Amino acid sequence: GDDRRVMHLLAAGDEVRLVKAAIDVADAAHLTGDVHGEHVALVEGLRSVSTRADPEAEMRLIERLLRSALRRGMPAGFDELLYRVSRAPDRKETRQIERVARGALCAVEGDNRRALAEIPDPATIDAPVVRRAALSSRLYAARGLAADEQLAEIERLEALAQVADERQARFALSSARAWLAYQRHEYAEAAGLHLRAAESQEGPFAEATARLNAASAYLEAGRYDEARAIAEGVAAYSRDRRNTLLETRAEWIARAAVYRSGKDGPADVDLADAALATPDYQCAMVVLTEAACAWRAGDERTARRLAERAAETWLAVRAEAPALI
Which of 106, 21, 103, 11 is nearest to 64 (CA)? Predict the structure, then answer.
């Protein structure tokens, strides 16, 4: 798919071909992590389908808008999705999408038990895209539970996925076990599980994300060379595809590995500035690492300036404990 094709068909008024192109472009963008391109294609497709009666095409687009909202993880994305659902025909699949969306929004907002009560069991869902979204959302919500409850939910969903031969669920399930191991401070095991998730053929972006999660786990395990090697590889991949969010996180892990291994070097102020375009918590971590590098290098002025910026960023999201660092 090519997003220029979507715009060309939109200008030409070819609505039938536009919807198919929008789905193709959205699927391709999802695999490469192009969140913006995926969203634009789906919105244009839905705008077209709203002018004519084609409930099946509308469902295929809304399914993918659910998938897009889950990856974005922002309340605004779920609000837009729920608005589209409210305008769609009232049918079983529409109601299931609405429940997954409302449950996932609860999880994003930290109400994990309510999320699990709302998100339908994947076994009750026929549409593959919606079924995988429900499974991923339940696993995400379960992260906020006690370790034994998390494990029980993972094992239950693993059994369901095995019965349904859901090979594409491997990424979410391996990632869930990895996050549980990470919470238990079993960092080397977590890294191995993330690397297993990277082999699930879920697409290049998912693979890069899983590898970066493995690098983060290796960092906590004290295996700095492995963390740095993986992170630098992901940074190169992200740079080629202009994925700032992934690149900045990869650069931070590589820099943290160097710092924690005891090596000296000046602060990368450009990286600290680039981190301003990333979510607050990631930005604060990047900036604090560079503040530590500046301090070790004897540049107290830069260290103080960056540390103050990190503290302000954490306080902005009410993360008071990290701000004290």
Answer: 21
Distance of CA 17 to the CA centre of its chain: 30
Per-residue pLDDT of the chain (325 residues; tens, 9 = 90+): 455 555 545 444 555 677 888 889 999 999 888 888 899 899 888 887 765 567 888 899 999 999 999 998 889 899 999 999 998 888 999 999 999 999 999 999 999 999 999 999 999 999 999 999 999 999 999 999 999 999 999 999 999 887 655 667 889 999 999 999 999 999 999 999 999 999 987 789 999 999 999 999 999 999 999 999 999 999 999 998 888 889 999 999 999 999 999 988 899 999 999 999 888 888 999 999 999 999 999 999 999 999 999 999 988 877 766 666 6
CA–CA separation, 179 vs 173, rounded Å?
10
Three-state secondary structure call for residue 231 = helix
The two structure tokens encoding residue 192: 């191995």
Alpha-carbon dihedral 132, 134, 140, 146, rounded to 10 degrees: -120
Angstrom distance (rounded) from CA 305 to CA 2: 44
Residue 142 vs residues 118, 135, 157: alpha-carbon distances, Å: 13, 11, 11
CB 100 within 8 A of CB 133: yes
Burial of 21 (0-12, 13-18, 19+ CB in 10 A): buried
**Residues constituting the chain:** 325
Q: Minimal CA–CA distance to 48: which of 38, 36, 58, 63? A: 58
- Which residues, in sequence order, are CB contacts of 234 under 8 Å at separation 6+? 208, 211, 212, 215, 246, 250
Q: Cβ(244)–Cβ(34) under 8 Å? A: no
DSSP 21-39: HHHHHHHHHHHHT-HHHHH
Q: Which amino acid is at 223?
A: R
Distance (Å, rounded) from C-alpha 231 to C-alpha 249? 8
**DSSP H stretches of helix in 88-119:** 92-108, 112-118
Q: Which amino acid is at 312?
A: E
Give the C-alpha separation, 313 to 325, whole Å.
12
